[in-house]
Amino acid sequence: MGMLLDSAGPASLYQEVVRSPYFVDKTAMLAELIPMLESNTKYICVTRPRRFGKTVIANMIGAFFSKGADSGELFDGLRIADYAGCQAYRNQYHVIYIDFSVSDDECDSYRAYIGNIKTLLREDLRRAYPQISFREEGNAAEDLRRIYSETGEKFLFVLDEWDAVFHMPFVREADKVSYLAFLKGLLKGGAYVALAYMTGVLPIAKYSSGSELNMFAEFTMANSPAFGEYFGFTGQEVDDLYGRYCRVCTDRKVSREGLRLWYNGYHTAAGDQVYNPRSVVFALQFNNLGSYWTSSGPYDEIFYYIKNNIADIREDLALLVSGEPVQARIQEYAATAMELKTRDQIFSAMVVYGFLSVDGGKVVIPNKELMDKFDDVLRNEASLGYIYRLARQSDKMLRATLARDTETMAEILEFAHNTEAPLLYYHHETELSAIINLVYLSARDRYRVEREDKAGVGYVDFIFYPYNRNEDGIILELKVDHTPEEAIRQIKQKQYMLRFAGRLGERQALAGRVLAVGIGYSKKEKKHGCVVEVLKD
Fold first, then answer.
1. Going along 155-311, which residue ranges are E strands?
2. Residues 374-396: pLDDT tens digits?
3. Has residue 404 been placed in a domain?
4. Burial of residue 525, with CB atoms counted within 10 A of its CB: 0-12 exposed, 13-18 middle, 19 or more buried
5. pTM of the entire structure?
6. Do residues 152 and 264 share a domain?
7. How many other C-beta atoms lie within 10 A of the C-beta of residue 518?
8. 450 — pLDDT class (breaks 50, 70, 90)
9. 167 Cβ contact partners less than 8 Å away, ≥ 6 residues apart
C-alpha cells in the first residue's frame, strides 16, 4: 500500500460513512460501473455541486475495487452484495486514488504542487514493482506502460476534485494548460487503464478547447440522467432516514415536512427531485433545521455570481426570491469563465455550483436553505437598487400588517410602485406577487411563507405560517383592478382559514390571531388599497 497506489484511505473513510447512523446505501452504482471496466466506456466523469456526495462515492469505488484492503465485511449486507458476480471484482484492481484538492500549506507554485503528485505516484509504483527496470528520467505514464507490458496488470484510477487545481491561488493560465496535458498523458490511450473515474464540480471538457480529455463521458446533474440517483438523497431515502431519526431521538425538533422545505428541490436530468445530502444528515444528527451546506458567509458567494451584471439580473432575482421560475439557457461551460457577464452565464454558474436548480429550461431557488441566502443578498446589497430598498422596508411592512395599520401598508406599496421599475408595471399578477414577497421579505424570519397554497376550496395567494404557534397567522390575497374588500370576501367565502384550524393532516391550530389581508391595485387610478381583518382572535 502506498500514498496514492492502493492506499488504505478510501476504505477507511468509507467505513466511517457506513457506520454512521444516517448512512444511505448507494453501492448499486458499482454494478453500473462494473460493465464499463476495460471497455470503450472506461472513462467516466461525474460532476455535481460541492458536498453532494462525490467524495463518498469516490471512496466507495476505491474501497470496493482496491487490492490495498480486504473490504469483504464492509460491503457484505449492502446492495452491491446482491449483484451476481460482484465478488469477482471486489479488491481485484490496483487503484490509483488522487484527491486533487490536497495541497501542502506551504505550496506556492503549480510546479511544486504537481511535482509532489508525480513523485508520490512514481515512488508507489517502484515500491510495488521492484522487479521492473524503470528509467530514472521517465515519468508515471511510462512507468505504468512498462508495468503493463511486463505483467499485463491494469489500474483503476479514482481522481477526486479534479477541478480543484483551477481554483488554487498560485495556478496561472499556462499552468492550467500543463495540468490538462498531465491528465492526458497519464490517462489517454493507456492500455493499462481499466477504468478512470473522475469527479468534481465543473465538467471536464469545458476546460479543454481541443482533444486533451475528449475520451471522457460526462455526467452532469442538469444534462445527464445516468447516475442521477446516486448523488443527493431521493424522497424515499429521506423517508427511511427520518424513520431512523424518529426511533433514536426522543426530543425531536425536526419534522419530515421541514426536511422537504429546507433541503429538497434539486432536479436531476431525469426529472427527479433530490435533497441536499449533507444538510439532511446534519439536520437529523444535530436535531436542528439549519444552513449546513452554504458557506459561513451570509451572502458573499451568491453575490459573487451576480455582481458583474446586476442590471440584467435584478428583476429575475426578485422573481426568483418570490418563488417564480425564470427561463434560462443553461450552458455548463459558462461556469468556467473568469468573469461571468451575461445573464445566461450567471445562471449557468449558479446551477453548476448548486445555488439554483434547473428543470424544463427554467431556474428556481430550490429550497429554504438557499432562499435564506438570497434573502440576505436582497437585504444587504445596496447595489441592487430599488429591490434592496424595498427589502429594507419589509420590517416596517410586517409591523404595520400585524398592527392593522393599512395606511402605512399602502404608503409602502406606493413607494414600491413609484420606483417605476419594470417589475412594477403589474402586467401580470406574478409581478405584483414578486413585490409582495419583497415588501414582506423579513417575515420569513418568523414565518414559513407559502404561495398559492391549497386552502379551503381554493388556492390562496399567500399564507404566512408562524414558526411560533403563539404568533399571528396571515392569509393574504391579491387583486388587480379589484378592491381589497373583494379579496377579503374571497378569503372568507373559500374558507382559506381552514389551513389554521388544526384539522387532521393540517397544521396544528394557532394560539395567536389569524389575519385576513386584502391588497388591491387599480391600474386606472394607479393606487393600492389595503384591508386587514381579524378572522380569529
1. 155-160, 193-200, 217-220, 266-267, 273-274
2. 998 888 888 888 888 888 889 99
3. yes
4. exposed
5. 0.89
6. no
7. 25
8. confident
9. none
Q: Is residue 127 part of a domain?
A: yes
Domain that holds residue 400: 392-537
Q: Can you give the length of the chain in residues?
A: 537
| 88: DSSP letter | G
Q: Using the predicted structure, report yes or no on whether residue 299 has a pLDDT greater than 70.
A: no
- Is 205 found in the same domain as 152? yes
Q: Give CA–CA dist 262/365, Å, rounded.
A: 11
User: Residue 475 belongs to a domain with what CATH number?
Assistant: 3.40.1350
Q: Which residue from 515, 458, 522 is spatially nearest to 484, judged by alpha carbons?
A: 522
| Residue 384 counted as domain residue | no
Lowest mean pLDDT among 68-77, 102-111, 444-453: 444-453
CA atoms within 13 A on the CB side of 80: 27
Residue 207 CB: number of other CB atoms within 10 A?
A: 20
pLDDT of residue 403: 97
The answer, yes or no, to whether residue 428 has pLDDT greater than 80, is: no
Per-residue cell: 323: 418563488
Number of domains within the chain: 3
* Distance (Å) of CA 114 to CA 53, 95, 274: 26, 19, 36
At residue 217, the 3 state secondary structure works out as: strand
Q: Given phi > 0 = left and psi -120 to 50 = alpha, else beta, which region is 226?
A: beta
User: Per DSSP, what are the bridge partners of residue 459?
Assistant: 454
The residue among 207, 220, 276 whose CA lies nearest residue 48 is 220
Residue at 376 is within a domain: no
Residues ≥6 apart with Cβ < 8 Å to 67: 6, 91, 92, 93, 94, 95
DSSP per-residue codes, 274-339: EB-HHHHHHHHHHT-----SS-SSSSHHHHHHHGGGHHHHHHHHHHHHTT--EE----GGGGG-SS
Please tell me the number of Cα atoms within 13 Å of 475 on its side-chain side. 29
Half-sphere exposure of 430 (CA within 13 A, CB side): 14
Interatomic CA distance for residues 439 and 435, integer angstroms: 6
Tell whether 121 and 183 lie within a shared domain. Answer: yes
> What is the separation of C-alpha 154 from the centre of its chain, rounded to a whole number of angstroms?
36
Residues 206 and 220: their CA atoms lie apart, in Å, by 12
pLDDT value for 506? 44
Cα(310)–Cα(383) distance, rounded to whole angstroms?
8
Mean pLDDT of the chain: 89
- The burial class, CB within 10 Å (0-12 / 13-18 / 19+), for 519 is buried
Instruction: For residue 203, give the 3-state DSSP assignment.
Output: coil
In the predicted model, is pLDDT for residue 432 greater than 80? no
